[in-house]
Each structure stands twice: as C-alpha cells, then as structure tokens.
Amino acid sequence: MSDVDGRRYRVxxxxxxxxxxxxADQELPAGWxxxxxxxxxxxxxxxxxxxxxxxxxRSVREYLSA
Length: 66
Description:
This is MbtH protein. Residues 2-50 form the MbtH-like domain. This protein is of the alpha+beta class and 66 residues long. It has 2 helices and 3 strands, in the order βββαα. It has helices at 41-51, 58-65, and strands spanning 9-14, 19-23, 32-39. Strand 1 and strand 2 (19-23) form a beta hairpin.
C-alpha cells in the first residue's frame, strides 16, 4: 500500500482499547486518546496490525474472562 495523500497520522485508542488512525493536524473526537505512534498512513496501520491482536472491546474480554 502506498502513501498517496502525504498526510501525517496518529494512532489513537479509546477506553475499550480499540485502535484507529486520525489525521495528526485534527482534534481528536471525544473518547479517543493518542497512543504514541505517528507517521504516514501505512506506518500507522502496520503498527495497529501488530499491536491490536484481539479485536474484541475491553469490556467484552473482561466479561468473558470472569
């Protein structure tokens, strides 16, 4: 995948430990927090693919492990 838009992105995460990317120059929506990774779109998406190994929301994982 090539970076065609030339924008910088940040990896963001919400309280349910769900990941996304957000344009670095835009204000984050409520409930999302900067994770720490920033770069072009492919860099951010590759990072998410490595770290987000369980797609279930945190509350579901906790409920099922109880």
